[in-house]
Design goal:
mainly beta; Jelly Rolls; 5-stranded mixed beta sheet; 5-stranded antiparallel beta sheet; 39% strand; Sperma_CUB_dom_sf; disulfide bond; sushi
Amino acid sequence: MQLLLLRIPAPCGGQYNGSEGVVLSPNYPLNYTTRQTCSYYITVSTQFVVFGQFAVFQTAMNDSVELFDGADENARLLSSLAGSHSGETLPLATSNQIMLRFNAKSGQSARGFHFVYQAVPRTSESQCSSVPEPRYGRRIGSEFSAGSVVRFECSPGYLLKGSSAIWCQAVPGALAQWNSTTPSCIVPCSGNLTERRGTILSPAYPEPYPNSLNCLWRIHVSEGAGIQIQV
């Protein structure tokens, strides 16, 4: 018996429902098709809002991705990105719907994007929204009331991009809010390692590394000590 495996290209646009999911650029993980505009509509239950981040983001400089805090492009613009980003965390939406619009009209192509989203509970006057764990990291703290502090750390080999701690602030006459966005965990290209043990990962790991990189890591240990490397 022979099995024939077919690769189904990621679509240009679509409707996404459920408490979590993934949105991919057209043809991902291959380069996206040029000269098109794709609209993606993400909806979670009404008692939640949408939290999202780009695990991978690489577009031609004149192509962009826009995210709107609502069902269409008339809603507030959450973020607009172009170029190359790694582990990009976005501002938390205030709605249970977001729209993602991919403008690929430059005629040039690149790898595209891998967007991960999940539903998180809404905020109140004395309670901030729940904080997801960063991809390839962990959250320390599970109390989200006003005055609470939540800390973050990354898995070995990853570097924290953003604040290592955020706190929930009470705002008079308004909803409680975090003083900063959730950080992300990225793989650095180069570094100086001085701890007794550590991990080195290729950029964007476990995804394939980008092209045209030149990364250098220096490992320093105490004089007289040896270095053992495992691959």
